[in-house]
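Example for tutorial group B:
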């Protein structure tokens, strides 16, 4: 699938500079950035859901020092 985007001249120069710095094509740079953004947002969503489940469970965390003491470390 192919698509096009409109960039200002400044945005184009920045994107080309980034791609050149990382030895990749402009298309590959945009593709990589897009999927990294998608992955980051997915990770945040999963983390938020897990944290909300933890809060709903009623479990409480304890300081790591307490665990070390219990394990005689």
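The residue assignment follows.
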């Amino acid at each position: 699938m192919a698509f096009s985007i409109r960039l200002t001249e400044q945005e184009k120069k920045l994107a080309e500079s980034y791609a050149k710095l990382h030895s990749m094509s402009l298309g590959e740079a945009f593709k990589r950035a897009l999927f990294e953004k998608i992955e980051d947002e997915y990770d945040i969503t999963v983390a938020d859901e897990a944290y909300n489940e933890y809060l709903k469970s009623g479990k409480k965390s304890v300081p790591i020092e307490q665990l070390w003491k219990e394990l005689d470390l």
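The two ends are 56 Å apart (CA to CA). Compare this with the pattern of hydrophobic and polar residues in the output above.
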